[in-house]
Amino acid sequence: MPGMWELPLLKEAAVPEAEVRMTLRHAIMLVNYYVRIRSVAEKEVGLLSMIYGERRWIPVAAAEGMALTGLARKVLKRAHLFGNLLVEGTSAETRDRDKA
Questions:
Q1: Pick from 100, 23, 72, 36: which is nearest to 87 by CA?
Q2: Is there a contact between 72 and 7 (Cβ–Cβ < 8 Å)?
Q3: What pLDDT does residue 40 have?
Q4: Residue 44 DSSP class
Q5: Tens digits of per-residue pLDDT, 21-48?
Q6: Which of 29, 74, 77, 81 has its CA 20 to 30 A from that of 96?
Q7: What predicted TM-score, i.e. pTM, was given to this entire model?
Q8: Which alpha helices (H) appear in 2-59, and where do they start and end?
Q9: Which residues are 95's β-sheet partners?
Q10: What is the spatial distance between Cα 73 and Cα 66, in angstroms, rounded to a whole number?
Q11: pLDDT of residue 99
């Protein structure tokens, strides 16, 4: 989305099962996306991700206050990189279930 930060997109959609960190569903309007997230070492970013727009490394603490896409924010929260914040529109019950 214009003006918003997002996580890098991989060149290849296929992710080896052993390298998948999480799988999640993300809905935009009436379209459901199923997204597989993997870890990428800093030295592999250029090889594995598509290069577009502005790219830079930032501290995780700084990302929390940035204009992130909904998907980027959801991934970082589910990875427990944003503390105990609730995903907008979710209940404490959902948060507790996701922690298990």
A1: 72
A2: yes
A3: 83
A4: G
A5: 899 998 888 999 888 888 888 888 888 8
A6: 29
A7: 0.69
A8: 45-48
A9: none
A10: 10
A11: 52
Type of residue found at 48:
L
The two three-digit tokens of residue 73, written as one number: 């924010």
Spatial contact of 69 and 4, defined as CB atoms under 8 Å apart: yes
Q: Bridge-partner residues for 10, per DSSP?
A: 49
Pairing of strands 31-38, 20-28: antiparallel
Kindly list the averaged pLDDT for each block of 10 residues, start to end, along the chain of length 100: 79 85 89 88 84 79 87 89 55 48
Residues 55 and 66: beta-carbon distance below 8 Å: no
Tokens of 56: 């830079």
Residue 88: closest CA among 61, 68, 62, 58: 68
Task: Give the position of tokens 């970082």.
Answer: 76
Residue 94's pLDDT is 46
